[in-house]
Amino acid sequence: MMNLSLKQLFSRSIEDGPDVVRPPSPRSAKRKMLLITLAGTLALVGAVSSAYYFAMRPVTLRIAVGPQNSDDLKVVQTLTQSFAHSHVRLRPLQTDGAAASATALAEGKADLAIIRGDLDVPKNAQAVATLRKNVAVLWVPPPVKGQKSAAKITKIQQLAGRRIGVVGRTPANVNLLKVILTQYGVDASKMEIVQFPAGEAAEAIRSQKADAYLAAGPVNSKITTDAINASIREGATPKFLAIDSAAAIAQNFPAYEPSEIPAGAFGGSPARPDDEVKTISFSHHIVARKDLPESTIAAFTRQLFSVRQTLLSEFPLAAKIETPDTDKDAVIPVHRGAAAYVDGEEKTFLDRYSDYIWFSLMGLSLLGSIGAWFASYLKKDERSNNSSLRERLLDMLALARHSDSTDELDQMQAEADAILRETLHCFEHGAIEEGSLTAFNIALEQFHNAVADRKALLASMPQNLQRAGVQLRATGA
Questions:
Q1: What is the pLDDT of residues 295-309, one digit of tens each?
Q2: Taking the model in full, what pTM does it have?
């Protein structure tokens, strides 16, 4: 009803003018607020969607691994293919070995690396998984007829002054040998240590290049097995040297652990060895930079253990992949992302970002309140001006009831038209509410009635009386 009344009054007040201006709907301000709310909601949804996209978009991690043609490199290449369509992807960086891989991680050239636990661990490295455990194998080939020197070696102390062959070119294996010799009081500087590349070790052993040999690798390592098989002479099996002081070595060097080589670990008949042999072991670890996000490493760890079973057929060593040590006193501290996976505390998207979403909602609500207050503050002058116009309309209402001039009434009518336009603009801008517009409607209707009544009265009076009335008012009589 109020809409119709306003339209009728407005049309009537300017029916003689050149333009007809239609007043806006009283609900336009509400529609504006609805549109603003909808826009804010869409903006929030867009922000959450963007956050989800950036949080879940594929991440590529550089992993340092080596040397060339090693089992470690082949495993990483297979993992790279398996992770091709996963959240976390890999890009192998080939190095010369575990030491070079550790250096690449320390210098920030790699995000992940496969390192040996008995080497210097970079300060920024944290454990993600144990790739495999390696054992130290010391053995003496059976004596050759006519030669007695090597036949007398039955324990490590007897290696003093001998020539020791080390399988593999890495200096880490030589350091491992020196750690063992030092524990038994053997001066490594008074003995000759020769290294053989893994591919040449079997031939060197057949050629009797040393009196005893050391190899380090998994129990089922093909390289170690081939080297031991090359030591067999005329059906005689090599003598395995037990490291009985493995616990003491582990006490002095936390990177090592006491371990055993099971009987028959290297096959053959008779079994090689024919009984369990005590030794020390160390691990190859997959480590990550400490500053990598928890969610990224947790996802990588989850992917790693989910594909482990699929690697077994091609890489039996994959069965040896284990979760990292999560104890606080671990030799290599565990990365918080790997720990979250191991402990079953891996966070979902909502877990990680719920606080941000909540604070964003609170922030939007606060900004909306501040915006509403600020908009209201900016419209304060407009409301004040409209209030003055409404008071002017009421004053004209009183004047119209006593006016003796149709010209004066027409002027007030024109002024009322201007006031109406200004009021409708204020309502359209949200400066005044529907209640204020209703009050203005009542005043405007009363003004129109007063003008119409006064014009009718003046029209019924003789012209001379009208002129007399105007003159009396002019003189103040």
A1: 899 999 999 998 887
A2: 0.65
